Amino acid sequence: MPVGFLSKKDPIEKARLRCRKKFLYYFKKGYSDPTYISWERQYKLNAHFQFQQELNRREYEHLLLAKKYSEIALAAVRIESRTNLLFSFEKMALRDAVKPANGAKAFAHGLYEYVYGRNSLEERFNNFSEVISGLPRKQTRVHTWPLQTVFGFIANPQEHLFLKPRVTQIAAEKYRFDFQYRSRPNWETYKSLLGFAEQVRKDTSDLKPQDYIDLQSFIWVMGSDEYPD
User: Fold this and answer.
1) How would DSSP label each residue in the chain?
2) Rounded Cα–Cα distance for residues 184 and 159 (Å)
3) Cα(95)–Cα(100) distance, rounded to whole angstroms?
4) What is the pLDDT along the chain (229 residues), one digit of tens a residue?
5) Domain-wise residue ranges, the chain
């Protein structure tokens, strides 16, 4: 019995048990299931490894000192492009936003502070939100939840979580979690997302989730059309 569950008679607990059963229906060994690792975990982990190879703190600081802002931005874009986390129009909007020198510089400094800065997560989130909202816009807006959260998630999935709005709202409804969603990126919604993930971590602790990659994947399986109920 997972740690977070107290009574099968409670409607919230029953809903969460159904979600757990759905996850285990697709991945019988939970987070260690080979199919789960192949379909959901490995490509996200590969992106994380690549980010830490190319843009680890030491290398990132070296590139910033050399004012190689475009190199930083293009490396981040290239690493993300090998995942399916962003929609194609979001990828294009980001590429357009960091092409100009001022866009690349703002993004490079903003991302460093978001991932490696020493301020609180709330401060770093809000500061990065300002950076993203201020990037040059060609057609599609850049300041979306996926673009706000994807690079922190890739860089450090022990601290940062990725948000796909519609899927997460559906998952929260199924999980009977009171997700405080607003469409424009904001700290209260992100804090609520982290709370949702921590509830999943508690309820699936016996399956030994390793990081937010596992918790984001659980949420994705609950809310995505790729995994029918």
Assistant:
1) --TT---TTSHHHHHHHHHHHHHHHH-TTGGG-HHHIIIIIHHHHHHHHHHHHHS-HHHHHHHHHTT-HHHHHHHHHHHHHTSSSS-HHHHHHHHHHHSSHHHHHHHHHHHHHHHH-SS-HHHHHHHHHHHHHTS--SSS-S--HHHHHHHHHHH-TTT-----HHHHHHHHHHHT------SS--HHHHHHHHHHHHHHHHHTGGG---SHHHHHHHHHHHH-TTS--
2) 21
3) 10
4) 455 555 556 899 999 999 999 999 999 999 999 999 999 999 999 999 999 999 999 999 999 999 999 999 999 999 999 999 999 999 999 999 999 999 999 999 999 999 999 999 999 999 999 999 999 887 667 899 999 999 999 999 999 999 999 999 999 999 999 999 999 999 999 999 999 999 999 999 999 999 999 999 999 999 999 999 9
5) 11-32+161-223, 46-142
Residue 217 and residue 37: Cα distance in Å, rounded? 10
Q: CA triplet 17, 18, 20: central angle to 5 degrees?
A: 60
pTM for the full predicted model = 0.92
- Judge whether 200 and 219 are in contact, CB under 8 Å: yes
Burial profile 54-63: b = 16 or more Cβ within 10 angstroms, e = fewer: bbeeeebeeb
CA–CA distance, 143 with 145 (Å, rounded to integer): 7
Kindly list the distances between the CA atom of residue 187 and the CA atoms of 7, 76, 170, in Å, as whole numbers in the listed order.
Answer: 33, 23, 20
Which distant-in-sequence residues (6+ apart) come within 8 Å of 21 by Cβ? none
